[in-house]
Amino acid sequence: MKIEDIKKHKVGLAFCVLQVLISLVFFIRILMVNVLKPGIMTGIGFALLCLAAITVLLNLYPRVHIIGKTMAILLSVVLVIGIVYVNKTDSTIDQITTAKKKVANVSVIALKKSGLTTINDAEKDHFGIVSAIDKKSTNKAVENLNTKLKKTISTKGYQDYVSLAKGLYDGEVKTIILNEAYRNVIKGKYKDFDKQTVVLNKYKSETEINLGKVTKNLTDEPFLVFLTGIDTSGKVDKVMRSDVNMVATVNPKTKQILLTSVPRDYYLETSVSNGEKDKLTHTGQYGVDCSVETLEKLFDVDINYYFRVNFSGFKDIINALGGVTVHSDYTFKADWGPSFKKGDNKVNGKQALAFARQRHEFYKGKKTGLQGGDFQRIKDQQYLVKAIIEKATSPKILTNFIGIMDSVSKSFETNINSSDIKGLLKMQIDEMPEWNIVMTSLDGKCGMEYTFTHSIPRVKYSVVYVRESQVEASNKMIGRVLDGKKIKKSDFDDLVQEYIDKH
Fold this sequence. Notes:
alpha/beta
């Protein structure tokens, strides 16, 4: 090959140099993300070198230099797209693993007819607070007001949020400090609360979350994760009711996952209720750590991590996936409009959310067709989780990869370190194991009871009573997974019957 011939193809060779540089950046980025084993990285490096050598050789020969130039351009474009995908994956993992705080939106509220327009107008009066519930957020809001007003404000304590609102309406206090997560509690008693009141000041209370129980290596040691869906739209770090409550027990050595679902209305002592009983869904209003601590006490286990998603993000993710196919045990019409047939249903985000939230057998006096109430909803949520996993692990995910990553980054939150998630991805890619996933759910007798959070006088709420047989069976199932023993769905039923026979 003469020097003159090489000069003739300098444009093609320039594209080859560009391809080599982009290949180098691509390789370094994959190396930095650290989700592939050394053997795979070696293979990728060798493939990139071979492709670079081929395009250079093709560009040096007159008869095929156009093919070489075209190949260099196409490979460069593909590698740039690959870099974008790798960067997006890395940034998404970093975003969802930065969860170290819970956020409560706290407002200072007055009646409109009081004429108050700012907190300065109310500084000489008592501020009403709830002294028995959500003390951390309230105390931080009081400290914030002290700083803003440059004085120590006077407060008047109430036992619950309905009593707090009554004090405002009756003129005992001119202003109240309200965690917005409990606004609906007040509106359950005072339906005109929004119309009759005005917000004088807003404060965002941030509290560190520290479960204090972290395993050393997620690819070697078994661990427990609390999976929850919170009843809110917008940012996922808000403290709101937890409407999906699952405990996932994962053993990476035996490749087993046990999903234990608990009804939202489960009636039990919580970590903040001072011995009184409350519904499990209300623990989300005190923060994910309260939900975790309550379930730890119920099952007598240590839960290492949490993973939560909000409802608006739930819709976005399914839409980004192009919809999913979910199984339904019944033909029914949801309260929110969509209808579902018995068998497989192709659903978009809005339809999937209606499917996952439906629990009423009757709506506006008409039978929906659904049976089992909240117990069936738990099964439907498990069906939907399975459908999402199946779609997310298929090649179709590549058609809208960036959109999916955007949805995940905005809607998911976990305290699992990014390095641990990457370690799990590395194990999955390297071994491609088949996981044994066993799903169990708790149920119980339904009734009406007073609750700690909604402590409205003479008002009872729908609850699900704890079945000790199922709690004991769940504890043993979790123990078997942690000990590396193989499990199957029928084991749970056998353990429940064993408990009943003994008692």
